[in-house]
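Hey,

The postdoc asked me to send both predictions to you directly instead of through the lab channel. I've kept everything plain text so nothing gets mangled by the mail client. Protein one:
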Amino acid sequence: MPAAAPTPKAVLHQRFGTNARYTVEEVREAVGGCPGLAPQTRSVYRCALELPGLSVATPGTFVRKKDAEQAAAQIALDKLGIQPIANIPSTPEEAWDELIARISGFFIDEKFLSSTHPLVGHLSVTLRRTGDLIGGIPLSAIAACDVKVNTLCKVIDPKAEFDPLLVLSFMYNAAKQSPGVLVSDTNFWIQSQKPYSPEAVDMALKRWSGTSDPVEVEAILVPHVLEDELKIVRVNLRDNEHYMSYVAEKLTASDSSHVLVSRTIGKTSSEIRLYFAAPNVHFVSDISKNVLACHGDGDINCQVNKRASYISGQTIYGDALLANIGYTRRDSELRTEDVNLCTYYRILLGKLPDGNCKMSRDAILAAELPSVYSRFSWKGLSPRDLLCSFCRNQRLSEPLFAVSRVSCGMITSAASSEERGAPAKSIENQHNDDVRTEEETPDSFKCEVKICSRKQEILVEYSAADTWSKESDAIQNSSLKVLIWFNNYFKQLNTKMDKLYLSECTDGFKIHPNIFLQEFAMCLSVYGNTRCNDSGMCSAVGPFSMDTPEKHLESTTTLTNIEGPDSGVFPSHGSLTCISYTASLVMKDKAKKYLLESHNEFEFEIGTGAVGNQLESCVTQLTVNQAACFVAELPPRDLILAAASEFSHDLSNVSRESCLLEFSVKVLQVTEPLEDRMEKALFSPPLSKQRVEFAVQHINELHATTLVDFGCGSGSLLDSLLEHPTTLEKLVGVDISRKGLTRAAKSLHQKLSKKSLVQATVPTAVLYHGSITDFDSRLYGFDIGTCLEVIEHMEEDQASLFGNVVLSSFRPTVLIVSTPNYEYNPILQRSAVPNKDDEADENAGPCKFRNHDHKFEWTRAQFQCWATDLAVKHNYSVEFCGVGGSGEEPGYASQIAVFRRMAHNLEAICLNKDQNQPYELLWEWPNASIPV
């Protein structure tokens, strides 16, 4: 598969490096608004680029900074006439000839010693030697420093990409045919046939300085036996000797020419590589016979190191040394950096589907791969970038994205949400009489994803009926679906191999098991051969994908050391919450405490699964400026060591049974959900307040004394009703969320306590924990029932079930139901401030839902059809109105149905009702204390 073309910035960086200076300017520009709403602006960018002898600037503006920079770089390339052209031979024979010439060129052209090529660093050190090996370097040093040599070897035989030993074979045999060089017949040394001139040597020694003082570098020895633990070793570099000589000592190789070097591991700027001793092999110089033969099947050096091979993507033999030592184009000195257990486990973590999500957020212990995508609150690398990174780390081809346009005739008014994983409903799930016309509904997009091996064999295909209003959202959401599938698959690797099940087709996925398992054979081998035991830590690799419990939204973490008063501002579902936290490993005997991870400002959205369940449970129990501690489930040893850079040595042998993980958390800021922010910004008074005033009006008109709020949540309606003069004597709230009810109880208790001090009589209040689709006889026949902005959070069949239960069983005199009007969404979204990283698109397709948790949003026709059917069925009348806007086209922002019970024998019906009471009484005023 041909490599992707370099970006304009990358091409300029290769030519000019840090001399290419970009200056990005942020400006504000107006965006289209709506009559009656304040005009809005957005941030856009222009870029100026300074190069030696050339200055350019973008003529226009761009929504994203990176697009402005790339545009400026492209203008510069056009003016300079630079065209990046790959100059790679097309046949093995041509590549062989060029490989011979390239190896020869490193040694016969003295001008090479004045270049910035990293190989000059190796040569300059060896030019200080005396005797036969002056200027002699290991052949593997060339492979480590020169990308072109490796590319040529891959053209000769594609297997060379995954086998350093095969690369050494080609280089050794090519060097034997290269003019001007000498190659040993018994080792893998290569040097110039003629001595270099003194001037060339002086120039190289001045440019590439050696190691003036002894340097100790920490490295990791990765044994080829999976059951053996990793070992921390220290490589001492001294006396200006070639560093690979000291590496050879640690590997017990005969000399440094027998040390093979893998490709770089991790980031491209890193020099982290795996070093291993070359097996005893014989080479053949005929490129048509490139098979390498080991001398003896039992030779330990011929045994594949599965752990080292897995993290490098190449075949590594025997014990390997993971070290960060080498020469680069950026430095004129030997570059060294310690590699500890943290480094090793972070490399492993990066190969997991959720690993780069954790590391891009620098929150290995706190962050999780979110279950939904939002352009407005997603943090870290995007789902597409995460999927591409995962495929690269697994040595797969780049993911293939096929975006197709879905005709307006194929979708309905409840089309996809671009905001959060709320895809368009299929046509079968919509009201058949409410399909939009071609003029009313723009097209939308769907995305198919294919994951292929390097040989372009398909491993996984994803294709679902979900549609999205923008191409980018279709790609991002489909990428997230594939990532989640891979994440779930990796969790299966904790099970025994004979129980590992790979379904061929499920939830829009088509799996090709044979090819898939073949491609992941090394992964299965590594993860399948190391197990956790209950008495101690995991062994060296260990199953990263721990068997995490399902995310129960109602689970409550036990908090300790709670500090700060209740400010009343708490995180709720959909809110963007900023916290500070520390995660520490604490010995149970309190003897030691190790700080593993900390964040001064960590932002995530409640309800998206972006953090661990226990951490989210803690946060939702606190208000802004409150802090608390809790003990979390102990993660696998691998994650602990990946987070603990400073203490990885100390923790490597700590038993799980002797320690626990403690989080200290403080809530810094809570930003309301996008829906609430939009309603407050665009309506005065806010829609939530308008809905309360609507309810108060009907309460007083009816002279209602009893009210039940179905889906009361945190009690915002009940709390607000206490601020208005009404005829109510009893308020009841019902909700499925215990956490929300606890908040409601605290707020109501505080407000009713104050009212009781100044009023002789105050309403009684009761909160029940239960589902609003279950009937409880205690709430039968109330004067008024409310269900405001609730049903859209349920599946449509559950919303219909609620309607049937409340009108047939609860039978309030009046029932008020409100829900968003989907037809009003374009007005809201055109008026909202666009995201900086997203382009405004007036014809982007169906509008997003107002909240990622909405399962549907109905048009006026759909809502009226739903409500009318219920009213006729249960002997109620119904009238429609709303709040927000004037009521003219396209209707109110929040549409409301008011059901009124028709004349009937209420007492007879009441007597026939079962005394079923499934609800749990959670709080009651004035008889009960506040729940905790």
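Protein two:
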Amino acid sequence: MISPWYKTWSILRGAPQCLAPDEMVLHLGKNIVLLLLVVSSSTLAVFGQRSAAHPEWNNREFAPAPDTSSPRDDSIDQSYRLPTDTVPTHYTIRLHTDLHTGSRAFSGIVDIDFDVIVPTDAIVVHNRDLLIASAALYAKDQDGLLVEFGFPHHEFDQRTEQLTFHPGQVLPIGSYVLTVEYSGLLQTSSNSGFFLKSYVNDDGERRYVGTTQFESTNARMAFPCYDEPLLKAGFTLWITHIAEYNAVSNMPVEEVVPSEEHEGYVTTKFGPTPKMSSYLLAFGVSDFVALEDGNQQLYARPNAMDEAEFGLEAGVKILDALSEYTYVNYYDYMPKLSQMAIPDRGGGAMENWGLVKYAETGLLFDPARNTYRTRKGIAVVVAHELAHQWFGDLVGPQWWSYIWLNEGFANLYGYIGADLAYPSERYWDLYAVENVQNAFGPDATDSTRPMTQDATTPSAISGLFDSIAYDKSGSVLNMFRMVLGDDNFRAGLKVYLLNRQLDGAVADDLYAGLQAAIDDKDVLPDGYTVKQLMDSWTTEPGYPVLTVRRNYNDGSAILSQERFYADKRSPNANVWYIPYSFASASNPDFEDLSDFQWLSTKAERIETGASADEWIIFNKQQTGYYRVNYDAHNWLMIANALREDPSVIHRFNRAQLINDAFNLARAGRHDLALTLDLLRYLSNEHEYAPWAAANGVLNYFYNKLRGTANYHDFIVYVDALIGPVFDSFGDIATVPEDETLLDKYLKQLISTWACRVGYTECLRQTAEALHTAVETNTPVHPDVSYVVYCYGLKGATDDEYRWLFDQMINSNNEAERQLLIDALGCAQDQSQLISLLTVAIGSNSELNSLLNGERSRIVSSIYSAGRFGVEAMIEALSDPLLAQEFVGRFGQGTLNNVVSNVASRTNNDGELEQLEQFLAALGDLISPETAAAAVRTVKTNAAWFETYEGVLSTTYFSDFTN
């Protein structure tokens, strides 16, 4: 049935065509013939000769770990862990795929070389959704020859995903090979395991891409294996595929030979990998082409190769920089590094050793279409993934409990590596506001976890990949990098990497490496060890607030620490070892980070040397992972100093002061009026980092006050802050050649606020720039495109809206398409927004290029851009037929999410009435619980105005206006 919204939909494309979805035909193919040469007799079968390698295991890895390093939590079900009586040494994997046709079916044979280290009658590996056809077991004799040991039967535990092979007898200590023939299906509903993607080439043909994502527990979806990080082995991979496609993997191709069983197919054979975890194996099958520079390659679809240059350049520069920084050469272990851009991956990237996979938005850059933010994102993501080549690939965690040894280092060296490769961009300026301050939010709750945390189920393991593993862990590691000194930290990392190379690690291994680098160097006070200090941060949840209460008569101060909660004060017995340094008005040296003192008790009195009339600021450059609070008088002196001359305080500390002051006030530890007074200096602030911190504060109040009687007073306050900075830009729709990266960030932030609160000049410039772009059919400069398009659409004609939509739908660049989708959601014409929504919901042959993620992004762009979008969403989905189509396209969860977001953007009685009518119109499409939660959200929003924070805030803005 055609949607009743076809009239508004036709603004963009005309009446939609109802197309039946394509049916997926599963082609199971033929079983692969065993490639091993059989020399049979009644008792002996020799399947080729292998080197009689010694077992690659040691007592340390599989003996019970001492209490100081064991991550296991007895309260967590350990039955998901594999038994340790057998360990793998090598996998030989042979896969066959017809994915070029869109077929999901694949088949494979894997030879698992393993050692029995404790006699056992069971071989237990992992499997998920693979159909096991047969299995054969062979023992290695003293010469390395394989002796047939029978055909074990198998059983599968769906809960633990453990596949157990029973040989029918106890296997003595020794070396064996288990050969398993199996089949499976490529994933299409998730980016996990061996999965299928596609793109449309320049001839309008759909081409398919097979690729992998095995972290954390998904290698078992492609072949039966010991899918735990410590159970490392070498991998030899052969892939049979259509000849016009090619295959890429961790190692270089050794040879490509015609398939004997399948005409028109070839088998691509890769060399053996170093010893590594199963989750690091990767491969891809596609018609991609490569751009090369020395030992590096970047693979992408042929019609995107003109966007590959920067990603490859970044890979070369950053890998060289990190090799030099770590004193460990990447090429001592791997012969090449490939990067691969996957279409329709959504987001993210994966650090497979020697073959890093990215979403296209994380690797492909077109300077004519993509913004400074895309370029920055690529530089940092590439550096993040390449840092993993050391932290995770060369040395991996013994268990997922220590995932911070991977992700914390990658988080930190994503920024350091990008900064080393591109020092003029000042990427490091973004670290604290994008990571330290980002970690503070989720880590200030009761439900937060420590950095070291056990988990055993696949879902619980996936849950460890959170802000704690990334942002907090990177921030804590950076704190100790600064405390120990970067040179010492580098030396310690070298010890750690070389001591644990090709093996697993626990936190104590890192501590030992760092300790070795500083022994006899007088870096830490007597009696302190790296382990003692770092354990206080890695084994406990949360973080402290350092409170500085000054005695203005004698120059002393009392320092105290307490766990910081965002919404309460609660006693906590934990004592963090807090490194601190401070600057003062008479000694405003924020650059010297060579000297730290330690607070190792709940409280301590110190001498500051500061006179009564000068400010002091702790945590120079926000290198420490903690908040700082002061007595009211010191806060007042800081605010006065900022108003007189912001440059006397380091820009990182200016950002810290804003973020700390606001969050301390919200937690009841500090006066909110002092925070709002502090922000008034921003009219003279021209650095991005402090404004990034302030942006969070202003957004908080904007979301509370928009649509209420208090909104005008808030806008007057915002105007006082942003007005002088906005006026300094002049033309916001052009990009000067000498404009720096951080200047671009600042201009977009300030311009967004100026247009949002209704600056006539901002709206005039953006509308004019959009009109000119449409008239000349020439897109604006990408670095100003979002602000121009988003706010230029206020009052835009249908022709202008259609032009912008066509720019999106005709673009071949995923990052540009995402930006344009976000801009299209900014429209303030309801029919335009409903037209856009029906595009996301509907099916039309002209719109086949819309990716699933782009359809979802359209939905969120509409309700996120402002109240106009919220009301358009309500109007559209109040129609039962369209709401049913919406659920059919996106599912129940997305509709629930829409309701939740509409509720969170409902601020007055009129809007509440609209919400209630919307909930009634949706009826049974949403659950009573979802509807009740939405109403509670609105009531909570309204109740805020009667809280102390709400009354104080609105009173402050009112007094400021009057």
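Summary for protein two, as requested: Residues 1-11, 13-69 have pLDDT under 50 and may be disordered.

Thanks,
C.
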